[in-house]
TrEMBL record, chain A:
Keywords of this entry: Nucleus
Name of the protein described by the UniProt record: HRDC-like protein
Record lineage: Eukaryota, Fungi, Dikarya, Basidiomycota, Agaricomycotina
Ranges for domain RNA polymerase Rpb4/RPC9 core: 26-136
Compartments it resides in: Nucleus
Organism listed in the record: Russula ochroleuca
UniProt similarity note: Belongs to the eukaryotic RPB4 RNA polymerase subunit family.
Main location: nucleus
Keyword Nucleotide-binding part of the UniProt annotation: no
Automatic annotation (TrEMBL), chain B:
Residue ranges occupied by any RNA polymerase Rpb7-like N-terminal domain in the UniProt entry: 9-64
Gene3D superfamilies: Nucleic acid-binding proteins, RNA polymerase Rpb7-like, N-terminal domain
Protein name as it appears in the record: RNA polymerase Rpb7
Location within or outside the cell: Nucleus
UniProt GO MF annotations: single-stranded DNA binding; single-stranded RNA binding; translation initiation factor binding
An example Gene Ontology CC term for this record: RNA polymerase II, core complex
Main subcellular location of this protein, as a coarse class: nucleus
The keyword Transcription is annotated on this UniProt entry: yes
Organism: Russula ochroleuca
Presence of keyword Nucleus: yes
Top-level taxon: Eukaryota
Length: 137, 170
């Protein structure tokens, strides 16, 4: 009889978190996602002194390296573009803006949950973001 | 993925701090207590953005200390299985490569690299090379996280670059 309890416990473990299926766990399913560019802005414009922790310094270095949009205007413009597609979740919006895939096929490969959106519509959004990136000041 | 999240933290305050500068003391205590910490539930707490409520403070019977339940908003970083992230390589060994994704350490096993990438122990620093790619220290790579392990104070991740659109990025 004891062996019976194992499969169910195993299943519960497996269902926990999987970004590919948009399962982020109870704490983060409805949490607000931040773009790397927004994190950079928030960290650089703190009114307090920067804390001298390893985590903080590594993060600051990381967001400086990988921020795709260097002004708050362009970051919010990207959010505006992606808001036009109502099916996108917060997580997908942030992933698209952080990774900036060039075409729909690449986007669906690195963010598997995007399969729900047609290629043409996704491509139009991605093109617009690429153009934004190119012409940001 | 970075999130902005409302969290709570409980501060125990010794009676010697009760007084006019208690508020400032509570704030600086909150900052020093939570910033830079890591838990399995919330991931890395990178920075406090704002304090929504410092708490009323309740004197505990028995020892005279006051307990403040503070609510604050913070930037947190939590990696998820199946998420694709960019990282910077900081160590290359025969076993595989170690990359830093912000505060997170991510290991990519040599078996999860593209088969063309061969370890080159004679190069300095050590690197993985194929005909058209080189992975060495400070190379930027795109990784898919395939698993995370949570310690008391740190999160480790393992990743793969053996899929389409992953690997070295310009």
């Amino acid at each position: 009889m004891t062996s019976r309890s194992f499969p169910s416990r195993h299943k519960a473990q497996q269902e926990e978190e999987d970004a590919a299926a948009l399962k982020l766990g109870p704490e983060f399913n409805n949490a607000g996602c931040l773009l790397i560019s927004e994190v950079k802005y928030l960290l650089e414009n703190r009114d307090k002194d920067a804390p001298d922790t390893v985590v903080y310094n590594k993060t600051l270095e990381y967001v400086k390296t990988f921020a795709k949009f260097n002004t708050t205007d362009s970051a919010s413009a990207v959010r505006e573009i992606l808001r036009r597609e109502p099916e996108l979740t917060q997580f997908e919006t942030a992933q698209i803006a952080n990774l900036c895939p060039a075409d729909a096929e690449e986007a669906k490969s690195i963010i598997p949950s995007l399969v729900k959106i047609e290629d043409d519509r996704l491509q139009a959004l991605l093109d617009e973001i690429q153009a934004m990136r190119k012409f940001q000041t | 993925m970075f999130f902005i999240k409302e969290l709570t933290h409980t501060i125990m305050l010794h009676p010697s701090y009760f007084g006019p500068r208690m508020q400032q003391y509570l704030e600086s205590k909150l900052y020093s207590d939570v910033e830079g910490t890591c838990s399995g539930q919330f991931g890395f707490i990178i920075a406090v953005v704002s304090i929504s409520d410092i708490g009323k403070g309740m004197v505990l019977s028995g020892n005279g200390q006051a307990e403040f339940v503070t609510r604050y908003r913070a930037i947190v970083f939590k990696p998820f299985k199946g998420e694709v992230v960019d990282g910077v390589v900081h160590n290359v060994t025969r076993m595989g490569i170690f990359a830093e994704v912000g505060p997170l350490n991510c290991f990519v096993s040599q078996q999860l690299l593209h088969p063309d990438l061969k370890f080159d122990p004679s190069s300095n620093p050590p690197s993985y090379t194929s005909q058209d790619q080189v992975i060495e220290n400070n190379t930027k790579i795109r990784i898919k996280i395939i698993g995370t392990r949570v310690d008391a104070t740190e999160i480790f991740a393992i990743g793969t670059i053996k899929e389409d659109h992953l690997g070295v990025i310009e």
